[in-house]
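pinging the channel bc i need a second pair of eyes. not urgent but kinda urgent?? the chain im working w is below, pasted from the shared doc
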Amino acid sequence: MRRTAHLLLLIAGCWLALPARAEPVRLIEVYQQARVHDRTLAAAEAEQAARAEQVPQARAALLPQLEARLSLSDTRLDDTRTLQRSGTLYQLTLSQALLRADRWFALQAAESGSRQAALQRADSEQQLILRSAEAYLAVLQAEDELAASRAEERAAQQQLLGAQARLDTGLGERTALLEAQAARDSARASRLDNERALIDAHEALETLSGRAQGLLAALASPLPLGVAEGEQAADWVDTARQRNLALKASAAGVEVAGQTLRQRNAAHAPSFELVAQHQEGDRDRLVMSSASTGSGAASISQQSLSLQLTVPLYSGGLTSAQSREARQRLLQSEALHEGLQRDLIEQVRTLYRAVSSANSRLEARAQALRSRSSALHASELGYQLGTRTLLDVLDARRQQFAALRQYQQVRYASLLDQLRLRRAAGLLTPDDLLQLHPAQVKAHDPQSLLTCLTVEGADDTAAPAAHTRPCP
């Protein structure tokens, strides 16, 4: 309990105790901080760098190989007489693969793997953009919901005091007092849940960005929702097939598996290698003559140039087993790629429907909120006139705040759907985050938004529609 109170004081301090010069933090700034701090992206970058090093490793097997050797020996031969040979041998060998199909396909696989890692890193960057938006908007939504629950609790408390006063004067009933008490307790429980949710959202944002965030910037009004005129779901599906980074990385994975299979099959093929060798050492080391005895001190040299043909005949079934394994790996990668493409198409179509209808759904929720606010006002007026009961007022208020929460949920969900659609199509960039804030940045004020969205009085025009008179 003390921890919760302490964190709430810290959050409240972001609104009240910060200096006036403190600028609200925009979403793009949170992303830039996460770009440096996020370990998932760092791991993807390290993986790309590691996979890139596999290309020169594979290419090296196709380039000339030069090695030097030094050999010291002392040989004793016992026959009819004892012979002893000792000497030093210097050897320099230069070899060049002329025909090594397996090494060539290994190079192709390494290059495809490097492209796959680069695409996966780029996809991780897009995923980080989306994760930053999700964490940022989760805090804004939690602040709005907490403001709404506090307003609901205050209203329920006032209703409870009124019911108690009516009961004390003999104008009310105890049943009405108990109903008001239950409504106040329920609102208090909801407020406590929302306080915990706000703390969790702030901690998630801090974990992502690597630092505690103070004031967050308000979103643009009206929100940049919807798709361009004339765009159809098929257009977004085609774009996603061509530009989705996860799908392109999966296709590169199929290429890697295909090249690996060719490499394994090429292990059955003959190989040609050109070998040039220079040797220099003691006579006894290079020329073993039975007529000579003792150790010859003369130094001689020897050069050779050879073309070596190697034909693999039998390796215990290893090569065939590796080929079969590589074929199954290829089938696996093809199946995963096809499954990913199907899921992507379904996701794009679903998100397109959500985004294309976002404005109309948000407008409908705003209208429902206005209607519920008007109904609450009518119930309160009827309660004063004696034509409505306290239970009617409590139920109308509960429905008003339920409509308010539904409006807020659609508002933030529509923004995230917009970003998810662009990510699925491979179009999401950090510039998309700049469009979520107005040109003149100001701090997010959940209380101002709450006042704008709810109706006070009988005049329905007091609650503006989201598309005609945007709230802050």
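so The chain is about 65% helix and 10% strand. and The CA atoms of residues 235 and 425 lie 10 Å apart. — does that match what u expected or am i reading it wrong
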